[in-house]
Design a protein that fits this description.
Elements (H helix, E strand, L loop, with lengths): L21 E6 L16 H9 L25 E6 L7 H16 L4 E6 L5 H6 L7 E6 L19 H6 L4 E9 L7 H10 L2 E4 H7 L2 H4 L7 E7 L21 H14 L1 E8 L10 H18 L3
Parallel strand pairs: 1-2, 1-3, 3-8, 4-5, 4-7, 5-6, 7-8
Helix pairs in contact: 1-9, 8-9
């Protein structure tokens, strides 16, 4: 499906004989908890795309975040193929469609980039990597998302890192940006620690820099980044459902992305939990769009 407002004006296909190196697609809903209205998340992917339009004509310009043009002097290689149709409440169907699209992109082969959408989306997104070798996870989030079940549901927005940890192709996990309360109970903390997840609080990043997180990622491995928007401070990312002060800054997150690109290989990227009804003057969508630009720039530089 072609989106009428593609990210940065990217095409939805390349000429015959050419293959993309990265493919963007969106999804609004994964798994909804019973009785919860998550309809606002369906607006997220398009909000990010709209926010990117101010830079659509500047793709070839110098980007001071990246130290050069977006594609680093290489031919343009990124597609935006629009949104996967999802329906609130169609939990199994949504998961199946997201996983299938991820597998389809990886078969090209290309790096899949998912715009969301609620924070249950990383579960089917990561499931799509099952036949493509082992990956590490870099989660940027205020919360560890390690609940086993909530209201009888095991695949919702409180469960993704727990479910992802159970996937045989996931070799390890670093969770960065953690802060505040509500992230987990003692049982979830202990379960994550038994698994071997590396916790890096927002305070540690503020005092030690992004190396506090990067040092836990082995050099040369393939890494999927899952970026929950509430991992950033609400002063620059107010459009989230759970605003928590003390989050990561924009510069810290783009330094994490750039540092990861130099240390390892970015195999996939998702950005979730943008909640446009809570945004202020489009600030969160703009910040999310710029973060995605940095992710694409890092992917371009590892080719």
């Amino acid at each position: 499906m072609t989106d009428p407002c593609p990210f940065l004006g990217f095409p939805d296909r390349l000429a015959d004989g050419h293959r993309p190196h990265a493919v963007i697609f969106g999804a609004g809903h994964g798994t909804t908890y019973p009785g919860q209205d998550s309809s606002g998340y369906a607006l997220a992917a398009n909000a990010i795309r709209v926010a990117s339009q101010g830079e659509a004509a500047l793709v070839g310009h110098w980007d001071f975040d990246l130290g050069g043009p977006l594609f680093d002097g290489k031919p343009a290689f990124c597609l935006d193929i629009g949104d996967i149709p999802t329906t609130m409440g169609d939990n199994a169907g949504n998961r199946a469609r997201i996983e299938a699209k991820t597998r389809e992109v990886l078969e090209l082969p290309a790096v899949p980039i998912l715009l969301g959408g609620d924070d249950s989306l990383p579960i089917p997104f990561l499931a799509g990597f099952a036949d493509h070798g082992s990956v590490w996870i870099l989660q940027i989030d205020a919360h560890i998302d390690w609940r086993d079940e909530v209201h009888g549901e095991r695949y919702g927005y409180s469960n993704p890192m727990r479910r992802i940890s159970e996937m045989p192709h996931v070799a390890g996990m670093v969770q960065v940006g953690l802060r505040g309360v509500g992230s987990a109970r003692l049982a979830e903390i202990e379960a994550a620690q038994r698994y071997g997840s590396h916790f890096v609080t927002a305070r540690e990043v503020h005092t030690q820099g992004v190396e506090a997180a990067l040092r836990h990622i082995p050099e040369g491995v393939r890494v999927v980044v899952t970026l929950d928007c509430d991992g950033l401070d609400p002063g620059i990312m107010p459009g989230v459902a759970a605003r928590t002060p003390g989050g990561l800054t924009y510069t810290q997150v783009i330094d994490l992305i750039a540092g990861l690109g130099r240390r390892a290989s970015i195999a996939g990227f998702d950005i979730v939990e943008l909640y446009p009804p809570a945004d202020i003057n489009g600030l969160s969508a703009l910040t999310a769009a710029r973060l995605l630009v940095n992710a694409i720039g890092a992917i371009a530089r590892q080719i």
